[in-house]
Amino acid sequence: MALSYFILSRFSPASELLIALWIGFGASLAAANADTWGTELGLLNPSKPVLLSTFRQVPKGTSGGVSLVGTLASLGGSALVGVAVGLQASADWGHGGDVRPFLQFLVITGSGMFGALVDSHLGASLLAIYFCPTCKKKTEQHPLHRCGNSTEHLRGLMWLNNDWVNAACTISAGIMGLLLAILLN
Ligand SMILES: [Zn+2]
How far is the CA of 157 from the centre of ligand 1 (A)? Predict the structure, then answer.
């Protein structure tokens, strides 16, 4: 998004797509921050999170597990980026007046939450999960567990590790932000 913005601004500085790319960029960052805050601060939730696919309780830190504190923390993380990017609201975008920066903030924060939801959903369904027979524990680590022994595939797509889930999180939020920005302009 940032690179497209840079290139387009050189060749077509008046393009209406520029602000949409800017908002998409903000949404992408918002999603990454929502994911981080949700994961780290979600540990403070008094009870265990539930898995987004089965709604069964899972240990804290499990990919795809959601909790109230984690979700609120995600919202805070997304909104922080939404405020920062929203303050840079372009005069050329939206319905004008005082609504524009607020709408830009809403689009970025909402798209960031959408990305975090995609992240949690993939983490609960298709993410590759392995089993360490030595520690008798589920893990995302492959081919070797942190104990040094090799892990066995338990469920999920073999190639879909946490890096791909994070990529899906930020890309889906970026596209959502870009589309909403074009739609609402
Ligand atoms: Zn192990």
Answer: 21
150 Cα–ligand 1 center, Å: 8
Say if residues 128 and 142 touch (Cβ distance below 8 Å): yes
Q: How far apart are CA 85 and CA 101, in angstroms?
A: 9
Count structural domains, the chain: 1
Q: Which domain holds residue 88?
A: 2-184
37 φψ region: left (φ > 0), alpha (ψ -120 to 50), beta (else): alpha
Q: What is the pLDDT of residues 53-78, one digit of tens each?
A: 889 999 888 889 999 999 999 999 99
Distance 116 CA to ligand 1 centre (A): 29
Buried b (16+ CB within 10 A) or exposed e, 49-78: bbbbeeeeebebebbbbbbebbbebbbebb
145: its two tokens? 């567990």
Joined tokens for residue 39: 């994961």
Res. 13: pLDDT tops 90:
no
Q: Which amino acid is at 129?
A: I
**Residue 57 belongs to what H/E stretch?**
none
Ligand 1 center to 152 CA (angstroms):
11
